[in-house]
Amino acid sequence: MRETDYVALGATAVRICQDLIRIPSVNHGGGTGDELAVASYVKDFLTRCGLEPTLYQSAPTRVSVVARIKGRDSQKPGLVLHGHLDTVPADAKDWKVDPWSGEIIDGEIWGRGAVDMKDMDAMILAIVEDWQRRKYVPERDIVLAFFADEEAGGMYGVNWIVKNHPEAFAGCTEAISEVGGFSATLSNGKRLYLVETSEKGMYWMELTAEGTAGHGSMVNSNNAVTEIANAVARIGNHKWPVRITATLRTFLTKVASTLGKEFDEKNPGPIVAELGSMARMIGATTQNTANPTMLKAGYKENVIPQHAKAVIDGRFLPGFEEEFIATIRELAGPNVKVSPIIHDIALENSFSGELVEAMCLAIKECDPEGIPVPYVMSGGTDNKGLAKLGISGYGFSPLKLPPELDFMALFHGINERVPVSAIHFGVEALDRFLQRA
Predict the structure, then answer these.
(1) Would you state the torsion angle of the CA atoms of residues 39, 45, 47, 53, taken in this order, to the nearest 10 degrees?
(2) CA-angle at 405, arms to 402 and 406, nearest 5°
(3) Rounded mean pLDDT of 311-323?
(4) Which of 52, 114, 200, 266 could disulfide-link to 418, CB 3.0 to 4.6 Å?
(5) Stretch 249-265: mean pLDDT, rounded?
(6) What is the dihedral of CA 166, 430, 397, 61, to 10 degrees?
């Protein structure tokens, strides 16, 4: 494609991203969410592009969209190109602008979902429309999937489709999705592009303590609130040991060598600190984590309740699941029950092979000074669901970001936004990659 074509393609992706942000698709968790309107938009868009999309409705308003682009060689394994349609909630009074405005201010698109992940959804749709206009046919089948419920573990999205309609992904062996291919600028000005080849597993859990109900004015040595509070404090304050996985070792070694420094596996902190705003997320991949997020107990000021509950967001590194769960149960103590809410696998794939080479070439063509590297994501993606079908998933939604932008703070954050220039870069890099994939 000529440069002028990519300028037009970028403008199309920006417009679609604004459209998607303006359609609220909030996931409140606990099975409560609504992707129906945005799924209808995507279905209609793909239909206009000559495809035959299917709506998968796991509950009245929980809707995903899947379509297949037939490739030139039906014997080759297919590629799943996927995004999610839901977003976390946003409280408008905390924002500088309406979270569902999709406004462009100072060269950035503002709104809930701008980086998580309606920007990638928009880039996919823009490329599909361009391919249809140019009558371009990829070498192999590409399954386009826009999932519901990613923000709450995918039970009404990818996991529901994998369980009930695995034929949607028949013949596919690889997948591409979010939170990868973005740039991180080091203190010496070198630009890394972090390709997600690994992600932590999920162990969201509920802690339950049982005690003796009674009057708040009396001594009570079997207080459920005290029991749950002590368990939450032990878990929340636990210092998890450093655990360096193969992917993290490769990543931090590359960061160190790019800076002209040495990487000490026993003390990764100094190299992690060189990553600036990215250090919070990367630091979380040097260990397992468990963060208390919710507490519930009692119904009146002077009544000691019989039950108390807490919720913990637990994440474990590839290879350290058993160690994580055993530690949690020990910290919770014998009088607190630990029940998983969502328990899903960790992933780790090799940073090698034709698919990875295609990603690296696309980055280098769009930014000759860019350095592609693998990394471990502290959160999770819908690639976990597809892995149950033997599909290897990577994060590659490329963005060239300003060095001063605190990118990770935008995920689920107030005033979420994405630079227009990053989408222009991303849609070109994604298109170049897909034409080789």
Answers:
(1) -30
(2) 145
(3) 98
(4) 114
(5) 96
(6) -50
As a whole number of angstroms, the distance between CA 369 and CA 346 comes to 32
DSSP string for 60-87: TTEEEEEEEE--S-TTSPEEEEEEE--B
Summarize the chain as % helix, strand, coil (round to 5). Answer: 35, 25, 35
To the question of pTM greater than 0.85 for the whole model, the response is: yes
**Going by C-beta distance under 8 Å and a sequence separation of 6 or more, which residues neighbour residue 81?**
124, 142, 143, 144, 145, 175, 176, 177, 434
Extract the tokens encoding 352.
């090698």
Helix (H, G, I), strand (E, B) or coil at 314: strand
pLDDT tens, residue by residue, 258-268: 999 999 999 99
Contact status, residue 84 vs residue 179, Cβ threshold 8 Å:
no
| pLDDT of 1 strictly over 80 | no
Q: How far apart are CA 314 and CA 203, in angstroms?
A: 5
Task: Give the contacts of 212 (CB within 8 A, at least 6 positions apart).
Answer: 220, 222, 223, 304, 306
Q: Are 223 and 211 in contact (CB under 8 A)?
A: yes
- Side chain identity, residue 263: F
User: How many whole angstroms separate alpha carbon 409 and alpha carbon 97?
Assistant: 17
- Which residues lie below 8 Å from residue 223, measured CB to CB, with a gap of 6+? 211, 212, 304
Q: Which residues contact 368 (CB under 8 A, 6 or more apart)?
A: none
Q: What are phi and psi of 205, to 5 degrees?
A: -135, 155
Helices in 260-302 by DSSP H: which ranges? 269-273, 279-283
Handedness of CA 172, 178, 180, 182 (dihedral sign): positive
Cα–Cα dist 220/222, whole Å? 5
Report residue 70 as tokens: 């037939």
> What torsion, rounded to 10 degrees, do the Cα atoms 79, 85, 89, 93 define?
120
Which residue type is seen at 271? I
